[in-house]
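Lecture notes, unit on binding sites. The following record was shown on slide 14. It pairs a sequence with S-adenosyl-L-homocysteine.
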Amino acid sequence: MKNDNEKGVPGPDIYGLSAAELTDVSLEAGLPSYRGRQAFEWVQRRAAADWAEMKNISRADREKLAGRLTLEPPVLLQVKVSKDGTRKFLFKLADGEKIESVLMDYRRDGSRDRATVCLSVQVGCPIGCPFCATGRMGFRRDLTAGEIVGQLLAVTAYARRADAGFRATNLVFMGMGEPFYNMDSFLRAARILNSERGQNIGARRMTVSTAGVVPGILRLAAEAPQMGLAVSLHAGTDELRDVIVPLNRKYPLAVLMEACREYVRRAGRRLTFEIAMTKESATAAQARALAVLLRGIPAHINLIPVNPVPGSGAERPAAERAAAFQRALTERGLAVTVREEKGVDIEAACGQLRQEFNNF
Ligand code: SAH
Ligand code: SF4
């Protein structure tokens, strides 16, 4: 890592560097290696947003580090609080793009100390599922690892300021964008957040959701086999899935299912399939097709009643239809649960995150 700063080029984002990499920066700056570890802990464990907060590093040494690194946390523009305690955060990034993150607080549901943060990985999404607000806004750019990590640190700093008494115990990479289209940054962010010197969130407490990017599924099995995997299946036939998850035209169901089987073999764990229930998808014919497709794959099915997205046209099935769909899957031996609804009233639920909104 060279010091580009004298040429006016900003140094790397401190939020996206590991403890080992910060140690190297420290040595290159002529400082002892422990300065790098201290800076890592200030940022990653204590969510420091400013060099001045790093009290055990002398001013002169802070300046040396600041000369080689960028410390520019996402700016929290607004927080919306749902009736159920879910909070949605709107952040502005250094280039002015905006992203959203969600905090789901499960404490009031009797789950002591459990809080899950849902992180975004891209600004917008190139896959363009028609029922998803992120997909409808189009793709703007990938987030850097530092911007992914920065969301969690900003939420942590907010919780501390608000004296809200929680810390993130679980992470889901299920916000805006497709994690496996930004694989390097997503994996780097997960490793940093996993670090014992930082947030120390175990890989088993992280789950990533993909629309079905086959190479990413296999890479996850190789590089982060302990992380949970959720695959957005949504339909049991190529005919329907081609429309609601356009990526299906690239990786059709037969190919996707083979990758899922391979994932189970390589990672040695079962996976989750997400199915958003709409009037079109929650039918007896789809339940039959899904049962055939999923036969023999150790998996859990998570049903999500589709959340309202303006202009998407996707509608929830009637309650009896949804119940019949669930029953049809269960009777065929599949393990099914319905995803608990969080934050729909503030547009913080699955598929409702986007950059532009009228009512924020
Ligand atoms: N791009 C990844 C992760 C982000 S989306 C993926 O598609 O898996 C997270 C989950 O929300 C996915 O299962 C997605 O299909 C689902 N989702 C999108 N729009 C939705 C909506 N309007 N209602 C319910 N779930 C939705
Ligand atoms: Fe992208 Fe996932 Fe939304 Fe589809 S559901 S558009 S893959 S974020």
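Take-home: The longest helix spans residues 145-161.
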